[in-house]
Amino acid sequence: MKKRDMNRDWIATARTLSEALPYLQRYAGAIVVIKFGGHAMGDDEAMDTFARDIVLMRQVGVNPVIVHGGGPMINEMLDKLEIKSDFVRGKRVTDTATMEVVEMVLSGRVNKRIVQAINAQGGRAVGLSGKDANLIFCKQTNPELGLVGTPSEIDPSILRTLFDAGVIPVIAPLGAGHNGETYNINGDTAAGAIAAALKADRLLLLTDVAGVKNKEGEVLTAITAEQIREMTADGTIAGGMIPKTETALDAIEGGVRAVVILDGRAPNATLLELFTEHGAGSLIRASFD
Ligand SMILES: Nc1ncnc2c1ncn2[C@@H]1O[C@H](COP(=O)(O)OP(=O)(O)O)[C@@H](O)[C@H]1O
Ligand SMILES: CC(=O)N[C@@H](CCC(=O)OP(=O)(O)O)C(=O)O
User: Which of 153, 219, 223, 288 is most buried (CB neighbours < 10 A)?
Assistant: First the structure.
């Protein structure tokens, strides 16, 4: 299949996971950044399946880094507190009161739920946010969005320390400002910036759709930067898909080898993408030569 050819430098030729098993050691040392979106988290079963895949990945020597979202969980808490919030091009307009809720929900409930799920599957996960160990400093994205941040300096050294210790980092997308501010970073944006800083082998953006769809609603297995620009301009790519495709382009420009947008709720989604020939979702690479 065409997509398979484009992956030949890194992905196995196995058709099934069991066929891939004897070859898994070839991935030892690879860095795979996985954005786990709020919509992809679904119920406890989806969380457990995700956690099992991540632990298996770590057991074969891959260094997985989880960067999570949690938009729906933030919405739920804002509703309870009767705080209104608006989105502009997929990003939440964040004032001080909203920021407090975002930090509590992401660094607290959502981060620890993922850490606990991975540890329950036999892994060793540690939760942190972009504020820990100076991982992410931000500048303001746009005054109209308030405390939404764009990562400006990333220090991934803490992640390498965790890799060496066999620990799986689970990162909430928050950043520090140089004047003591806390910034809300879109989860996709944070994952892309971390993947670029690590020059990751793969960035997987897990969501609740099978991939990027064209006007006819068909999932595109491979997309170029040019197609993404056209589809965004004509409105085919909209809402939450905008930060994902923008992230994919920035990550590739920043040195990530390939980005895949895929359905995180599909059984064994991440393992199938990494270890089998057919992969899953929409693959974005610098060039398809
Ligand atoms: N061209 C497109 N292809 C696929 N999904 C799209 C497209 N344009 C907009 N979307 C929307 O983007 C959503 C994914 O973004 P979002 O809801 O923010 O996900 P997550 O919470 O997983 O980060 C999809 O559920 C879909 O409704
Ligand atoms: C700036 C911005 O929009 N931040 C997001 C952070 C969480 C996120 O990205 O969650 P999902 O991946 O589940 O959508 C927010 O406040 O919702």
Answer: 223
Q: How many domains does the chain have?
A: 1
Nearest CA, atom 14, ligand 2: 71
- Whether residue 102 has its Cβ less than 6 Å from ligand 2: yes
Residues annotated as binding site for substrate?
A: 70-71, 92, 184
**CATH (domain of 90):** 3.40.1160.10
Q: Ligand 2 pocket test: which of 67, 68, 74, 138 has the largest number of ligand atoms within 8 Å of its C-beta? A: 74
* pTM, to two decimals: 0.92
Q: Over the stretch 230-281, which tens digit does the pLDDT of each residue have?
A: 999 999 999 889 989 999 999 999 999 889 999 988 888 888 888 777 778 9
Pocket residues: Cβ below 6 A from ligand 1:
37-40, 69, 71, 207-209, 212-213, 236-241
- β-pairing, 282-284 vs 222-223, is parallel
Strands, E, within the chain: which ranges? 31-36, 63-68, 87-88, 91-92, 125-129, 136-140, 149-154, 168-172, 174-176, 182-184, 202-207, 222-223, 259-263, 282-284
With respect to residue 289, please indicate whether it lies within any of the assigned structural domains. Answer: no
